[in-house]
Amino acid sequence: MICGFDLLVEIVRIISMDVNFTKLAGVLTGFSTNLQKGERVLIDAFDIPEDMVVALVRAARGRGAVPFVNIQRARISRELINDLDAEQFETQATWELFRMQKMDAYIAVRGSDNIFEMSDVDPSKLGQVMKAMKGVLDYRVNKTKWVILRWPTSAMAQQAMMSTESFEDFFFRVCTQDYSRMAEGMAALELLMAETDRVELKGPDCDLHFSIKGISAVACGGSHNIPDGEVFSCPVKESVEGEITYNAPTVYQGTSFDRIHLKFEKGKIVHADGTNSVRLNEILDSDAGARYIGEFAIAFNPHILEPMRDILFDEKIAGSFHFTPGQAYEEADNGNRSQVHWDMVQIQRPEYGGGEIWFDGELIRKDGIFVKEDLKKLNPDYLLGEN
């Protein structure tokens, strides 16, 4: 039985949640995808509350767009993949690509009651599905306006080692922040990266050097991922030399990894170890491109400080960078192609051992703080409105 005061508290919580749903839907359909009258948008809902789906439908219609909805459940996906029929997934990929080609925009909101739901699925079957669906993914990334968002669940709160209520407050604060405040600093970093040749990444567990000459840089401030806060480019494919041990944990294809160590020669990963080294190397052997780097990104979201084994959050950690084996994006392309795109994160703030980023012999960031004058607006004190 709920007493009067407890009932009032619950009512206030529900009202607050409804307001958060509406505000977040507005960010996704407005700032992130900028839906226009008559545009078709596919709303891909993975294990999230129906009320959030309704909020997205209403927000899309409020902008004059035409919403389509696809509901997915992780346990059902696992069951389909476990007893895989290759022809079935090829057929599914055909009609999913046909549907995607009819869309102007794509909004995915992904929840998860268990991040390890796929951990006991045969890796070869996961690989077959990823290969079958690659055409759909490529079209969505390169031909539509898109944004992807994780949904706050009890499982995510556990990963972040927070109470459910505290995590929900954190989630909505991060996802509805004023991303426009990043714009000036991101533009400066984007221009600098586009003009840079040699990059050096230095730290206790990192000694890497490579070229990004001639490859575009792309600023990401809430237009594709929520949360956001990074500028990415890509190494010249065969230019990477050195080694790195990533100090943020990662989950890929339902398997958890810690302290991944990679060694590079002429751009290729020639040695890889860490927890679960066998599975790590199986993934890196998925195809020829999986052992080359497809993305280099510098991150600076001031609200995200600690890893929580969710890459959409972890790759935006303030004072971090990610260095990604696998597929390159067409916007910043080194020609590498793979069914794998595995963002791996190293944090360079002092409490994680520190580190430096150098561009063409000039120190750009030290211990997670930008030192170049025109990049200082990407530091936490400015982005949080403290300066």
Question: What number is the mean pLDDT?
Answer: 91
The domain tally reads: 2
What does the main sheet amount to? Answer: 8 strands, antiparallel
Order of strands in the sheet with the most strands?
14-13-10-6-5-18-19-20
Net shape:
globular
Number of helices: 11
Task: State the gist of this model.
Helices cover 34% and strands 25% of the residues. By secondary structure, the chain is α+β, with helices and mostly antiparallel strands.
Describe this structure as you would to a colleague.
The protein has 387 residues and is an alpha+beta fold. The chain folds into two domains: 21-175, Thermophilic metalloprotease (M29) (Thermophilic metalloprotease-like), CATH 3.40.1830; 182-383, no CATH class. It is 34% helix and 25% strand. It has helices spanning 4-32, 50-62, 74-82, 86-100, 123-143, 154-159, 164-175, 183-194, 277-284, 311-314, 380-383, and strands at 40-46, 66-72, 105-110, 145-150, 198-203, 206-211, 218-220, 225-226, 230-233, 241-245, 250-252, 255-257, 261-265, 268-273, 293-299, 320-325, 345-347, 356-359, 362-366, 369-370. The strands form four sheets. It has an eight-stranded antiparallel sheet with strand order 14-13-10-6-5-18-19-20. A five-stranded parallel sheet has the order 2-1-3-4-8, sandwiched between helices. Strand 3, helix 5 (123-143) and strand 4 form a beta-alpha-beta unit. Helix 1 packs across helix 2 and helix 4 (86-100) packs parallel to helix 5 (123-143). The chain is globular.
